[in-house]
Amino acid sequence: MDISDWRQKIDELDVEIVRLINKRAEAARAIGELKKTADLPVYEPRREQEVFDRVRKANPGPLADAELLHVYERIIDVMRTLQRRDL
Ligand SMILES: O=C(O)C(=O)C[C@]1(C(=O)O)C=C[C@@H](O)C=C1
């Protein structure tokens, strides 16, 4: 494969990633609404640690665990912002 083939692959993967990240956001928003009803805090550090542990276990590489966790920290940060925005 040449560069343009790999770029096309990336373009296709990005469409999938965008779809999945938005599905994750829908779930986070639903949780946010339930938390609001139950008067629970948006930030749940123990749950976030579980997510990070599960992500680390699922990591097939080539990303290092620390690199993947960096991405996930950003994702969860955005999810928290979404939950607070919708409150
Ligand atoms: O599981 C929750 O309680 C969520 O709100 C979802 C989520 C996540 O995006 O994974 C977001 C914020 C919390 O701090 C923990 C986890």
UniProtKB/TrEMBL annotation:
SUPFAM superfamilies: Chorismate mutase II (SSF48600)
Pfam families linked: CM_2
Coiled coil: 3-30
SMART domains: CM_2
Listed InterPro entries: Chorismate_II_sf (IPR036263), Chorismate_mutase-related (IPR051331), CM_dom_sf (IPR036979), CM_II_prokaryot (IPR002701)
Domain Chorismate mutase, chain residue ranges per copy: 1-87
Uppermost EC category: isomerase
Keyword Isomerase: yes
Taxon lineage: Bacteria, Pseudomonadati, Acidobacteriota, Terriglobia, Terriglobales
GO molecular function: chorismate mutase activity
Keywords on record: Coiled coil, Isomerase
One biological process term in Gene Ontology: salicylic acid biosynthetic process
UniProt KW Cytoplasm keyword: no
Record-listed E.C. numbers: 5.4.99.5
Name of the featured protein: chorismate mutase
